Amino acid sequence: MSAALPVPVIQALQVLTIAVGAPWVSGVIARMEARLQGRRGPRVLQPYYDLAKLFRKEALAPEGASWVFLAAPVAAVASYLTIPLLIPVLTSYGLPLGYMGDILGGGFMLSLASFLVAIAALETGSPYAQIGASRAKTFSAITEPVVLFVVFTASMLTGTDLPYAVAATVRSSAGQIVAPGHLLASAALFLVILHETSRIPVETHTGTNEFGMIDEARPFEHSGPYLGLLTWSSQIKQFVLYTLLLNVFLAPWGLSSTAQAGSVGLAILALLGKAALLGIIVAVIDNSFAKLRLFKITEFVSGAFLLAVLAVFTFYLGGV
Amino acid sequence: MGPVHVAGAYRGVVDILAALTLVVEFGMLRQALARDQIRLYAAQSALISVLAIVIGAGRGLTGLFALAGLSAALKVVAIPLVMRRLLRGPGRGGSGPAEAPGVAGSLSLSLASTVLWSLGLAAFGAFTFTAMNIHSPVAPAAALAIAAAMVLVSFALMIVRRDAVSQAIGYFSLDNAISLASLVVAAGLPLILETLFLFDLLVAVVVFGLLMRARHARGQSLSTAGLTKLRG
């Protein structure tokens, strides 16, 4: 029997798991992607070495950039790390701070971080960073309705939009998992996540072609620790979105139902395992499709929107 | 596992299959290649056949197994095969285009607006049928509403696409939508009647086949956009 952990420690562990695990998930995806292309690929731990290197380097700011340019990366990481307090990362029961905000609250934190990074990109005066910021905002405006419809479906299914309650409903019976409304909403959320984590078919994750860049173009002018923070923040965002999809919608199993250190530890491993599996699926998609032309992205998003709206329909038609 | 669970799972599976046929219908609407449209049609027909098997097994209607087999043979195998043959071009032995002609660019609206409009149509169809309150002992009412939505979306497919292949596929998927509706409201219908309806489709295949051949032979294109002009 292991000792019970105090609640604040579990709460802190939720944030720590996301913060420390995020580069590992990115490393797994990069490695898998390379393997699928027949390359040996970087070590799974390479993102940590990259971050460590960036944090040791000197930071430069473009002339004329104000404090906003330097504050944005810190604020972005802080915003992304607030979300693990709101969603079930390790425990199936609600932690005290879990009721600070609902899924929409988490969505607001994601938008806030993205807004701050966009503002910092505008500060630089660099055309590439600015075009990235402008595109990111344009496309996030068209993915927002999809997210809203996904949230509507989840809240109609459960009567609340608190992530813990949604996960508990999904876990409650097998019928909930195969409910068409739930599956369609999860599929729509998955497409949004592909979009938000700048994966193919929306954006080349490791590309160097500035004309196709959206999210990747924004930190062009940041350097040193600030670039490190931005890179880390996009890894955290990816892991947060994966956790949201896995622990709230698709597979809310493996969460700890007690405060025992052993079961919380197992929950950490389960989450990392599930995220790695999802990452492998994303890597396979990355390697099987071509990047869409910029103006075709609306068609991709309209597909996600279609699924989300059909999810709401099937709910109303009684096919819960 | 109590009986309630079984009923829940049965309902869930039927609902999922019905929802998937609607998703595939939208897929046909979005698809840019004629070849892939035919593939999606075959997938949709396969889903309907599986649905017939599920309903047959769940409600003890053994006649549906025969129907499922027949419709799979016809709509999953035969019709897609004939369509692909027809697309291979008019010349025997490959004097026509080697690759099936695409239907990209045949949309009369932009893709995103097409999706939005047909979502509106689907909502109209589905909700009016729900309001009619038709209940069936064999399948959940949601499937009937989805069938109504599919009927309207397949009409939309025939209206917004300006090429013979999409219009044929739209017509065939209309038949799938009606098969779905009949599975819900009249699953116990005598097999002979169901089979007759199925063979009605073959006439349509012949007619559309002739239309596509004639269109391609006249204008070297499957587009119907030029047919609006009157030539004296």
Short account of what is shown:
Chain A has 320 residues and is mainly alpha-helical. Chain A contains 11 helices and no strands. Chain A has helices at 7-36, 46-56, 67-86, 103-124, 127-158, 163-172, 174-177, 180-196, 224-250, 261-288, 297-316.
What would you note in describing this structure?
The complex is a heterodimer of chains A (320) and B (232). Chain A is an all-alpha fold and 320 residues long. Chain A has one domain. Helices cover 69% and strands 0% of the residues of chain A. Chain A contains 11 helices and no strands. In chain A, helix 3 packs parallel to helix 9, helix 8 runs antiparallel to helix 11 and helix 9 crosses helix 10. The radius of gyration of chain A is 19 Å and the shape is globular. Chain A starts with 6 loop residues before the first helix and ends with a helix. In chain A, 52% of the residues are buried. Chain B is an all-alpha fold. Chain B is built from 7 helices and no strands. The longest helix of chain B has 29 residues. At the A-B interface, helix 8 and helix 11 of A face helix 1, helix 4 and helix 5 of B.
State the low-pLDDT regions of chain B, or none.
Answer: 1-6, 91-100
Largest sheet of chain A: none
Helix and strand succession of chain A?
A: HHHHHHHHHHH
Shape label of chain A = globular
In the predicted model, the low-confidence regions of chain A spanning at least 5 consecutive residues are none
Number of strands of chain B: 0
Anisotropy-based shape of chain B: globular
Report the sheet with the most strands of chain B, covering strand number, pairing sense and barrel closure: none
Oligomer: heterodimer
Averaging pLDDT over every residue of chain A, what do you get? 88
